[in-house]
């Protein structure tokens, strides 16, 4: 039995032979209280892994990190052959001492192991995601359509009849057939039989006249997650599988649900069929449970955000349709904003929504309907917005012309509140009703945004609102909260990235809402260097993931999810990556200061 625990990073990346090498060269060393294990100017000859006890890392008289069981120190010093900090035993410590020469040899042989010592920020975050995925069975994030397998499609010709299709479906025990007609490929399903019966069409009707030729397809090597997302968004039950552009199979929701234990597509279908707010309240709880399941299976925060956005869109749309009469839905546009609009809200936070009315449309009952909607969302677990950004407030329930006038005012008189409201609205996404009403308001906003560097500088200046909690010697800067040293991931890291990217996107006239999509577009158009855009995206993904994991822990303990994290409770790897992520935030903020000349304000 091994005396060394290889289950934690980065040692979980080692092969069996590499583990044997490391274990054969590992020594166990005891240090008494207040012993100095490493100090400034001292040659670093080993990497240490704590077995028992506590070790504190000191910069002068300041404690910047505490290492406990299974934590590793100091990888950076090992590579640099020296450290500027002191590592002092706080409680009697028993540690593994891993010789520097052996560790460095392993980093050369094993790129994944070495990534934690030498890699760029993006590579380290990527290695973390790869390792997390390898610990699980294939997940929605990594499995492809090819992994699931698909049924060989039954194909008929366009001149064949509906009766022929029925016979083929019965013989082959399928619920759909492909229809090839001239140079087009279509699909005919059991659902189409309903329309034929209602239309009194004869069974001799050629398939070419009733098949659906606007096929939705998925490539056989595409991620299964993308196929699931397409089904959920389009409210369909099957996709045509293609390989090199040719149809090779049919993928149904049953195929996916038999492969995975989660039922996100079934949740979407339940939302479509829900006939009461009671049903929707139950389904809203299922969305949170789904997040917990998928997160435990390795699906990461950015992908979860997009899936939750899709399901929430259905939830909000169905809620509005159950509350509001059809003519109200047709003459309004319900929009979500902020993190919900960007597709980056995973756990339920406060409501950020608005209602845009068609010009000339009014209804005395509308305020009551809006109040009922806000109350329903609160019942579903979305607390009211502290700033009142909800359709129950008249300021966020206006006609197109009034909203356009409001937007123009925010641009012309950009005080703090106006800029905050504008930032929230920039991320707006239509979820129900007539989306052209939102497009009309966006057009007004684009016209109002003249080429005025001072406006964009004032807009971007909010990135200076909170300090990045990373000190001069890469120590994490915390504040005492509830008896623990904590830092706020949202204020210190997530918000500066999200708002900085939003400011650059607004300046460049980009239409994307999602921060990761915006980063990609900014890199493509040359507004950001590709390497920095990649680092910023990876840092944001890590911060969102860390916030999600902490939030799930808080909810499991019966507390409301927050953005605060206690660094002392993180692993060595997590603390190192948190420092790396916050260092990227600092770099990005420096770029924003120069770009928008924030020092002039």
TrEMBL record:
Output the SUPFAM superfamilies linked to this UniProt entry. cAMP-binding domain-like, CBS-domain pair
Q: Which GO terms describe its molecular function?
A: [protein-PII] uridylyltransferase activity
Q: Name the Gene3D superfamilies on file.
A: CBS-domain, Jelly Rolls
Alphabetical keyword list: CBS domain, Transferase
Q: Has the keyword Nucleotidyltransferase been applied to this entry? A: no
Q: Does the keyword Transferase apply?
A: yes
- One Pfam match, given by its short name, reads CBS
Q: What is this protein called?
A: Signal-transduction protein containing cAMP-binding, CBS, and nucleotidyltransferase domains
Query: What are the top taxonomic ranks of the organism?
Result: Bacteria, Pseudomonadati, Pseudomonadota, Betaproteobacteria, Neisseriales
């Amino acid at each position: 039995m091994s005396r060394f625990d290889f289950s934690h990073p980065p040692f979980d990346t080692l092969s069996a032979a590499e583990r044997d090498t490391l274990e054969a060269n590992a020594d166990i060393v005891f240090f008494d209280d207040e012993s100095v294990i490493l100090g400034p100017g001292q040659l670093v000859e080993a990497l240490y892994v704590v077995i028992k006890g506590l070790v504190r890392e000191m910069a002068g008289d300041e404690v910047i990190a505490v290492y406990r069981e299974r934590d590793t120190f100091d990888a950076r010093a090992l590579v640099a052959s020296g450290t500027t900090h002191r590592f002092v035993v706080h409680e009697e410590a028993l540690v593994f001492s891993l010789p520097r020469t052996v560790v460095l040899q392993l980093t050369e042989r094993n790129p994944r192991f070495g990534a934690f010592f030498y890699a760029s920020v993006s590579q380290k975050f990527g290695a973390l995601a790869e390792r997390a995925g390898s610990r699980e069975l294939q997940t929605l994030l990594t499995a492809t359509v090819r992994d699931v397998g698909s049924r060989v499609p039954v194909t008929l010709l366009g001149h064949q009849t509906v009766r022929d299709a029925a016979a083929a479906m019965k013989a082959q025990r399928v619920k759909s057939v492909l229809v090839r007609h001239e140079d087009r490929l279509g699909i005919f399903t059991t659902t189409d039989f309903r329309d034929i019966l209602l239309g009194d069409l004869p069974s001799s009707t050629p398939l070419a006249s009733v098949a659906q030729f606007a096929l939705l397809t998925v490539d056989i090597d595409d991620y299964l997650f993308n196929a699931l997302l397409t089904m959920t968004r389009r409210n369909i039950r099957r996709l045509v599988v293609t390989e090199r552009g040719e149809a090779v199979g049919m993928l149904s929701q049953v195929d996916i649900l038999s492969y995975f234990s989660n039922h996100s597509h079934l949740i979407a279908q339940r939302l479509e069929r829900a006939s009461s707010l009671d049903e929707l309240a139950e389904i809203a709880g299922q969305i949170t449970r789904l997040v917990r399941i998928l997160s435990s299976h390795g699906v990461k925060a950015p992908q979860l955000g997009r899936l939750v956005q899709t399901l929430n869109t259905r939830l909000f749309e169905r809620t509005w349709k159950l509350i509001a009469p059809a003519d109200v839905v047709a003459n309004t546009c319900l929009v979500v904003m902020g993190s919900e609009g960007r597709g980056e809200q995973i756990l339920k936070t406060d409501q950020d929504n608005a209602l845009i009315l068609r010009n000339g449309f009014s209804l005395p009952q509308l305020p009551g309907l809006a109040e009922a909607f806000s109350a329903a969302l609160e019942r579903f677990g979305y607390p009211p917005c502290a700033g009142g950004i909800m359709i129950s407030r008249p300021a966020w329930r206006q006609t197109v012309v009034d909203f356009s006038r409001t937007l123009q005012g925010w641009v012309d008189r950009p005080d703090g509140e106006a800029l905050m409201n504008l930032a929230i609205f920039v991320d707006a996404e239509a979820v129900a009703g007539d989306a052209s009403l939102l497009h009309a308001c966006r057009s007004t906003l684009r016209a109002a945004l003249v080429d005025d560097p001072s406006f964009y500088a004032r807009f971007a200046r909010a990135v200076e609102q909170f300090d990045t909690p990373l000190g001069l010697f890469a120590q994490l800067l915390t504040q005492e909260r509830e008896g623990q040293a904590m830092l706020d991931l949202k204020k210190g890291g997530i918000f500066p990235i999200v708002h900085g990217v939003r400011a650059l996107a607004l300046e460049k006239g980009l239409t994307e809402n999602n921060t990761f999509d915006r980063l990609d577009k900014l890199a493509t158009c040359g507004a950001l260097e590709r390497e920095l855009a990649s680092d910023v995206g990876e840092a944001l993904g890590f911060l969102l993931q860390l916030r999600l994991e902490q939030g799930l822990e808080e909810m499991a303990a019966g507390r409301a999810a927050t953005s605060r994290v206690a660094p002392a409770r993180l692993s060595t790897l997590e603390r190192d990556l948190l420092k790396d992520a916050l260092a990227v935030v600092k770099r990005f903020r420096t770029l924003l200061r120069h770009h928008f000349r924030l020092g002039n304000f």
